[in-house]
Write a structure and sequence with these properties.
The structure holds two protein chains of two kinds. Helices cover 21% and strands 28% of the residues of chain A. By secondary structure, chain A is an alpha/beta fold. Chain A has one domain: Fe-S hydro-lyase, tartrate dehydratase beta-type, catalytic domain (fumarase), CATH 3.20.130. In chain A, β2 (21-30), α2 (33-44) and β3 (57-59) form a beta-alpha-beta unit. Chain A is globular, with a radius of gyration of 15 Å. Chain B has helices at 6-22, 26-38, 42-61, 89-103, 148-151, 164-179, 197-207, 219-234; strands at 2-5, 71-79, 82-85, 128-134, 139-146, 155-159, 187-195, 248-258, 263-270, 276-280. Chain B has a four-stranded mixed beta sheet with strand order 4-2-5-10. The longest helix of chain B has 20 residues, at 42-61. The interface between A and B is large, with 43 and 46 residues.
């Protein structure tokens, strides 16, 4: 199975094809609805983002609080389409990798192709299993948002599939 | 008259919230395993294997099945001969939710105002509470904690009576199709037919609570459930939306009398982690 180390540049991602199973390792940032909204507001005000967006990876997840002795609680993907409205602006800032579940809009797919980014899908409702592949979680920003805060995660062999590859091919449009 | 202490309601809600967060109901787990055996492609088998491994890990390690530990809906079936003492019934329910979500480190997913502030209430309250009066002195609590990935894909339509059976079938299947990979398939589909605009939605959520191995008591509605389940699986959305064979684990319908001019139809989509349980006090 292919392995991808994050952060990854668009050059590193070019060989990936929609539908392929992949194991991800390295650094990703959590962000979902509320964190996206705030980041877009910061961009509109020409202020600095709380995370370096160049070659960054974002995981759409709002984990449960970490139990004692573990870095994180249950941590599966949330529905990516809710982030569609915000995504092209972040891709413009250098974002190269997104992890979530479900379909993306035509606008997002177009921006993925323009920037050579990749959208990965993880198994929805497998939060306990996926948490086992998250080795570290460090708060970064927006802690008042609780489960929606931005947290830096270190992944190790995190199982997912290529959802939309850098050429715009979509796993959900493929035959079995 | 039987007296029930409000503390017992809190305790029951507290206990049920944590149990359903970590453990699949046995009927759903059995159906998932059957679905796993019906998959033929590498991707769909991998997705089902992840779900089954996840179920095992969640139960043994007490990590929630899904990070979206839901918005809690509680049904109180209260005997009219019951007197609740030492506190308010609804406050007792909310205290149980608050205590369970805080102590068991379940996710606080509720915001105080839906449109303006959207500030997290920090303890997953308030739960939605429905109260049904029944005869006798029983006190039964049904509780579900439903994630919003699937709740967001639910729909309601006021069909014309002339659209009839075909209209209901088309709307249910269209809703499943639109839900697609977003609703964390394989799904459980609750359908409410009849009543009013609001009551059909209520029925569609209640329909999700019937165990998967329990047939609809009305043979006509049971046949429709079977037919819709088979047709839903012909849509080949499949686990994770990878076009496999298991799209719906079950379709469950509740119906009610309605107006001569109407045929309300509500479809409440639920992900495979359909978390619900009932307790008798």
């Amino acid at each position: 199975m292919k392995r991808v180390t994050l952060p990854a540049s668009s050059k590193d991602l070019r060989d990936l094809q929609a539908g392929e199973p992949v194991l991800l390792s390295g650094t990703v940032y959590t962000a979902r609805d509320a964190a996206h909204k705030r980041m877009i507001e910061l961009l509109e005000q020409r202020k600095e983002l709380p995370i370096p967006m160049k070659d960054a990876a974002i995981y759409y997840v709002g984990p449960t609080p970490a139990p004692k002795g573990r870095p994180i609680g249950s941590a599966g993907p949330t529905t990516s389409s809710r982030m569609d409205a915000y995504t092209p602006a972040l891709l413009d800032q250098g974002l190269t990798v997104m992890i979530g579940k479900g379909r993306r809009s035509a606008e997002v797919k177009e921006a993925i192709v323009t920037h050579g980014a990749v959208y990965f899908v993880a198994c929805g409702g497998a939060g306990a299993l996926l948490a086992h592949h998250i080795k570290k979680a460090e708060p970064v920003a927006f802690e008042d948002l609780l489960a929606e805060a931005i947290v830096r995660l270190t992944l190790e062999d995190f199982p997912c599939f290529v959802g939309v590859d850098s050429f715009g091919d979509d796993v959900y449009d493929q035959d079995q | 008259m039987r007296e029930v202490d409000a503390a017992r309601i809190t305790e029951a809600v507290y206990d049920t919230c944590q149990k359903i967060a970590f453990d699949y109901a046995p009927d759903i787990l059995a159906r998932l395993k059957r679905g796993r055996d019906e998959e033929t492609t590498e991707r769909s088998i991998a997705a089902m294997d992840q779900l089954l491994e996840n179920a095992e890990l969640a139960s043994t390690e007490r990590i929630p099945i899904c990070q979206d530990t839901g918005l809690v809906t509680v049904w109180l079936h209260v005997g009219q001969d019951v007197h609740v003492i030492n506190g308010s019934v609804y406050e007792a329910v909310q205290q149980g939710v608050s205590k369970s979500y805080t102590e068991h480190r379940l996710r606080a997913s509720v915001v105080s105002d839906p449109l303006f502030e959207r500030v997290n209430t920090r303890d997953n309250t308030p739960a939605v509470i429905y109260t049904e009066l029944v005869s006798g002195d029983s006190f039964r609590i049904e509780l579900t904690a439903k994630g919003f990935g699937s709740e967001n894909m639910s729909r309601l339509k006021m069909l014309k009576p002339a659209e009839g059976l075909a209209g209901v079938k088309d709307f249910v299947l269209e809703t499943i199709k639109l839900a697609g990979p977003n609703a964390c398939p394989p799904m459980i589909v609750g359908v409410g037919v009849g009543g009013t605009f609001d009551y059909s939605a209520y029925l569609s959520k209640r329909a999700l609570l019937r165990p998967l191995d329990e047939p609809n008591p009305d043979p006509r509605w049971n046949a429709l459930e079977q037919e819709l389940e088979a047709e839903a699986n012909q849509l080949h959305i499949g686990p994770m939306g990878f076009h496999g064979n298991t799209t719906a684990l079950a379709v469950k319908i509740l119906s009610a009398p309605t107006h001569i001019a109407g045929l309300p139809c509500a479809v409440n989509i639920c992900c495979h982690a359909c978390r619900h349980k009932e307790v008798e006090l």
